[in-house]
């Protein structure tokens, strides 16, 4: 029996899983309370969702109303979302890192009627803008002692804890149960399921309208492309559910298959949580994988001597073994024996730190550097890369489990077309779909366009902006540059990121930055040089490595000076700039750089909530330092 059809909606995914895959008493959600991981069943999840739905109906919430969230990943997010989805309301998630002004804008632009608030810190933000949010009628904290924050403020909206919402809703459920069931049946695939506001590196946030069909079709085809996901997986969730990637790749997939979702306590405790939960699948971002890669390399080689030799020998064996298997051949008996030794001495110890049970990790949000993907492949940890945007629900392509092409983001998913359009002529260089896949096909690069079931309904209240990105033939223009390589999609960069030097040479920063990020001394690279004679960069050093090499205390990073001028540290970084510059064309090489003491941050307005640097903000903020870099050059080649 096919569980996901053209008529399936988001609230039906979980109920289908309970009816056909798992009994309602099985565990669905897992959270850590104090020192203990607590399990929450499907039955308890839906009971709380039904109670919240009843409360919504009691206060007059109707189909199509927007209900907001500002909360970290948690079971409460799931209860609330399931509750609103089944009565046809629209999930309007707000990144917890946004400023008060941005929160106010989203509440007003969406016309949100309620907002679920995850912490006292976030509630303080919300109450400051609540009275300016014209449609807001309820503020719902997930904690009880909210009165300390709200008691001295005359709020137009009522404030009630989620616990009391559930209690009140439960007491009213008998009167609303039939209506809830009726409303769930009336939700159409074409109805809007969510408004997700794009973070945007420039301009005002835009509410992306994603339908039930957008989400459900995306889940369906991703499960077709990765059939190894079975109904007994445990996902560890740490990427924000306010972002479309985690919502689809973890939450909605788990609803469809009835998988367990364990919520990580925080990014800082992620490694500890992985060891405790022992997940089989995780969604992640390239930067996390880069950090694991850097830490593993450092840990394996720092001691030098025999230990380092064994580590490097194991990686070499892992690479040879992987390449032979990926070529469709069988490794020799001797290589298999060596690989078993490498697994026991090195690989198994690294895998233990991820919990030891990982089938694979799904990487999205940005392109994963090729060398990092190969490193995990050498260890026997499979990384499946995916690509997409908020506007595409999000997945447009994803790596097939049995066919890995490092440095690419996988095969086109079923049911859509991806076109590569020449940036200047606007002619299509190539249009590919799932069926046309050819492992030997490669084409020139251009803008990536997509057409099909994954494309959003449009931007909320912004028809002109919608028309700018979706053309008359239904192609959504992503603004990303890429090509097909060995049949798989390969990302080059964003069109807006492209630098054109004074000699007319086009330079895409991401592949250049990734080359320098091979250095264990460097945490981040921000490339500059548009309309300039040469390339410069703002570089953030790897804090831990810097401290170890120069015996620095934390106070070194707390000083007011934004940039590090110490000649020894500059020379130390310059050594690796020079080393890795040899891998690049001369016009791509960094000729001068500034070392930023601390990373760019969301709080300082330099990064989007999805951790992409805001180019215009950074260039304006550090204009003086950037200008200084073009007065003198450092010889790197």
Automatic annotation (TrEMBL):
KW Phosphoprotein (keyword) present: no
Keywords: ATP-binding, Ligase, Nucleotide-binding
A molecular-function term among this protein's GO annotations: ligase activity
InterPro entries the record matches: AMP-binding_CS, AMP-dep_synth/lig_dom, ANL_N_sf
Domain AMP-dependent synthetase/ligase per the UniProt entry, residue ranges: 27-460
Source superkingdom: Bacteria
A Pfam entry, by short name: AMP-binding
Protein name: Long-chain fatty acid--CoA ligase
Lineage: Bacteria, Pseudomonadati, Bacteroidota, Sphingobacteriia, Sphingobacteriales
């Amino acid at each position: 029996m096919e569980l996901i059809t053209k008529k399936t909606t988001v609230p039906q995914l979980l109920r289908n899983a309970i009816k056909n895959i798992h009994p309602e008493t099985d565990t669905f959600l897992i959270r850590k309370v104090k020192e203990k991981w607590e399990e929450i069943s499907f039955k308890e999840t839906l009971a709380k969702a039904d109670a919240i739905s009843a409360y919504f109906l009691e206060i007059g919430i109707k189909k199509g109303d927007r209900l907001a969230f500002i909360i970290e990943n948690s079971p409460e997010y799931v209860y609330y979302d399931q509750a609103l989805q089944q009565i046809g309301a629209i999930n309007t998630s707000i990144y917890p890192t946004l400023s008060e002004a941005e929160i106010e804008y989203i509440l007003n632009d969406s016309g949100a009627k309620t907002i679920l608030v995850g912490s006292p810190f976030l509630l303080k933000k919300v109450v400051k803008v609540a009275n300016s949010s014209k449609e807001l009628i309820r503020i719902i904290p997930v904690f009880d002692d909210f009165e300390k924050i709200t008691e001295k403020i005359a709020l137009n909206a009522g404030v009630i804890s989620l616990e009391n919402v559930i209690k009140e809703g439960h007491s009213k459920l008998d009167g609303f149960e039939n209506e809830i069931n009726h409303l769930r049946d009336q939700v159409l695939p074409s109805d809007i399921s969510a408004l997700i506001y794009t973070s945007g590196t420039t301009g005002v946030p835009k509410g992306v309208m994603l339908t039930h069909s957008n989400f459900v079709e995306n889940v369906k085809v991703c499960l077709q492309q990765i059939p190894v996901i079975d109904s007994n997986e445990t996902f560890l969730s740490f990427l924000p559910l306010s972002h479309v990637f985690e919502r689809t790749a973890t939450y909605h997939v788990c609803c469809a298959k009835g998988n367990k979702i364990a919520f990580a306590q925080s990014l800082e405790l992620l490694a500890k949580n992985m060891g405790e939960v022992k997940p089989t699948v995780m969604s992640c971002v390239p930067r996390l994988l880069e950090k694991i890669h850097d830490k593993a390399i450092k840990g394996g080689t720092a001691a030098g001597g025999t230990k380092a030799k064994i580590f490097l020998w194991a990686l070499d064996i892992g690479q040879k073994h992987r390449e032979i298997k990926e070529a469709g051949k069988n490794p020799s008996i001797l290589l298999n024996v060596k690989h078993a030794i490498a697994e026991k001495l090195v690989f198994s110890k690294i895998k233990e730190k991820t919990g030891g049970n990982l089938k694979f990790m799904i990487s999205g949000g940005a392109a994963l550097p090729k060398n990092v993907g190969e490193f995990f492949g050498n260890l026997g940890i499979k990384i499946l890369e995916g690509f997409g945007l908020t506007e595409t629900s999000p997945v447009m392509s994803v790596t097939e489990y049995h066919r890995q092409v490092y440095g690419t983001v996988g095969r086109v998913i079923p049911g859509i077309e991806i076109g590569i359009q020449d940036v200047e002529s606007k002619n299509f260089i190539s249009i590919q779909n799932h069926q046309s896949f050819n492992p030997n096909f490669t084409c020139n690069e251009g803008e990536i366009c997509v057409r099909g079931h994954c494309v959003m309904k449009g931007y909320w209240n912004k028809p002109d902006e919608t028309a700018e990105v979706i053309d008359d033939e239904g192609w959504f223009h992503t603004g990303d540059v890429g090509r097909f390589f060995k049949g798989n999609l390969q990302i080059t960069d964003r069109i807006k990121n492209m630098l054109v030097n004074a000699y007319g040479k086009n330079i895409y920063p991401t592949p250049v930055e990734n080359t320098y990020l091979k250095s264990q001394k460097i945490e981040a690279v921000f490339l500059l040089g548009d309309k300039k004679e040469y390339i410069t960069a703002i570089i953030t050093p790897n804090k831990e490595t810097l401290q170890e090499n120069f015996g620095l205390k934390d106070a070194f990073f707390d000083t007011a000076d934004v940039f590090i001028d110490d000649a020894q540290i500059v020379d130390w970084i310059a050594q690796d700039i020079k080393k890795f510059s040899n891998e690049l064309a001369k016009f791509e090489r960094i000729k001068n750089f500034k070392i930023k003491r601390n990373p760019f941050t969301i709080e300082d307005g330099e990064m989007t909530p999805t951790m992409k640097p805001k180019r215009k903000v950074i260039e304006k903020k550090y204009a003086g330092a950037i200008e200084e870099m073009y007065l003198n050059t450092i010889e790197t080649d």
